[in-house]
Design brief:
The protein is of the alpha+beta class. The chain is built from twelve helices and five strands. Helix content is 58%, strand content 8%. Strand 1, helix 11 and strand 2 form a beta-alpha-beta unit.
Length: 439
């Protein structure tokens, strides 16, 4: 503690003097000179003192006043020298008090205590070496103790006040920095939320548009009726994408309605929308099977969500087909819907010609599980030298940002669940999520 204070004081004293420092030093030197002349008037009028001794005493006081110019750089050394000079000189009393004040301001308590002890010894010794003509020993000691303690006490008060102001400034700067960090974190979280919502809503719709547009580009021999049907699907998907975009922007502009656990202001997709999501993907040409093993997507089987027209969904042998949809928490249902939506979008991007299986299972108290499996698309065969270029068998692959799975993992973790993705033992790509479902 003491070494750090001394280091800070040394840095302050070695810095360039400001105008305020010049003015303060001039005032201190002037006050010291005036104090010495006023208090030593009786000594100058004392007949036993010769003129030579008086001149030497006055010169010692003048040198002490000039030495105060070094009080910021060497306060302790200056105080010790003036304490020694005070044993034989009356006129160094003023510079000595200023030096003691400077030590109390710029040095730690331990150093101040040592210098104060030396000053106490000097107070007890000075009346014995050259007594004051107007005071006895006790009066001289009491007056000296009063002056020295006043100078040191005032210096310690100034030091403590400076430390308090520095602490308050540091605390204010720290609070301002923390507020800036909180604002930056809030902005970052808001940007991530906007990016996640935009990705969840628009990636699925735009991938459907890309599939239909690619089919029109590839099928140059399509009949006018087929072209009209595809254009109608594109128009419908674009309209739905715009509607979803309006809803997302509305949710982002609205206040945080779900900050206290309440439902969002705008309608959000739930498990009941899974059949519609699968049907949209099937209309885009995907081969999707919805396996609802516990009936969590609704009260009973839903026809028309299988591989082809009129095919019933693969519900599996599980029980609980009539499970109430209201039993699944709204946040859990939204998270499960987004996970399935991202799985279908990734399958459409990276494996457009493969079969996809969507499975939803679970029960209250056990948790809700959703799984999206699709076969891995076989890589294109390498072209041998001299062979003709391979004929393109379909539209180009849909580009992706590569952030969907990371966003899903974050969304599942926020819901208290977990997300797993990677190849399955059968060689398919498997996207699996478990979400809590309270009993």
């Amino acid at each position: 503690m003491g070494s750090s204070d001394e280091a800070r004081a040394a840095r302050r004293t070695t810095a360039r003097r400001a105008l305020r420092d010049w003015l303060v030093d001039v005032c201190c030197i002037s006050l010291a000179a005036v104090f010495s002349m006023v208090t030593c008037e009786s000594v100058a009028n004392d007949p036993p003192m010769s003129d030579e001794a008086l001149f030497a005493d006055v010169m010692a006081g003048a040198l002490g006043c000039l030495a105060l110019w070094l009080r910021r750089r060497r306060p302790v050394e200056l105080a010790v020298v003036l304490l020694g000079a005070g044993l034989v000189s009356y006129y160094v009393a003023g510079p000595l008090l200023v030096a003691l004040f400077t030590v109390a301001v710029h040095r730690p308590l331990r150093t101040v205590a040592l210098v104060g002890a030396a000053a106490a010894a000097q107070i007890l010794t000075t009346p014995l070496v050259h007594p004051d003509p107007d005071l006895d020993y006790v009066g001289d000691v009491l007056l000296g103790a009063l002056l020295v303690s006043g100078a040191i006490g005032w210096g310690m008060f100034v030091r403590s006040r400076r430390q308090l102001l520095a602490s308050l400034r540091e605390r204010a700067a720290r609070a301002e920095a923390e507020a800036a960090l909180r604002a930056e974190r809030t902005q970052r979280l808001t940007r991530e939320r906007i990016a996640r919502e935009m990705h969840d809503v628009l990636a699925h719709r735009l991938s459907l548009l890309s599939v239909h547009a690619g089919a029109l580009e590839y099928r140059a021999d399509a009949s006018p009726q087929e072209v009209a049907e595809a254009a109608g699907v594109i128009r419908s998907s674009a309209h739905q994408a715009l509607q979803d975009l309006r809803e997302v922007i509305g949710v982002l502009r609205a206040p945080e309605s779900d900050a206290d656990g309440g439902p969002p202001d705008r309608p959000q997709p739930t498990l009941a929308d899974l059949p519609r999501l699968v049907e949209e993907s099937r209309r885009a040409g995907m081969r999707v099977t919805l396996s609802d093993e516990a009936g969590v997507t609704g009260p009973g089987p839903r026809p028309g969500t299988g591989i082809g027209p009129g095919t019933a969904p693969d519900t599996g042998p599980g029980t609980g087909i009539g499970t109430s949809l209201a039993a699944v928490p709204g946040a859990t249902g939204r998270t499960a819907y987004r996970i399935v939506q991202e799985g279908l979008t990734n399958a459409r991007k990276h494996a457009p010609d493969t079969k996809v299986t969507v499975t939803a299972a679970g029960a209250p108290g056990e948790g809700l599980t959703v799984e999206v499996c699709n076969a891995v698309r076989a890589p294109a065969r390498a072209r041998t030298p001299g062979s003709p270029p391979a004929r393109r068998e379909g539209p180009a692959a849909i580009p992706g940002a590569g952030q969907g799975l990371a966003g899903l993992a974050e969304r599942a973790a926020l819901a208290g669940g977990r997300l797993e993705c990677g190849p399955s033992p059968a060689g398919d790509f498997r996207l699996y999520a478990w979400l809590p479902w309270p009993a």
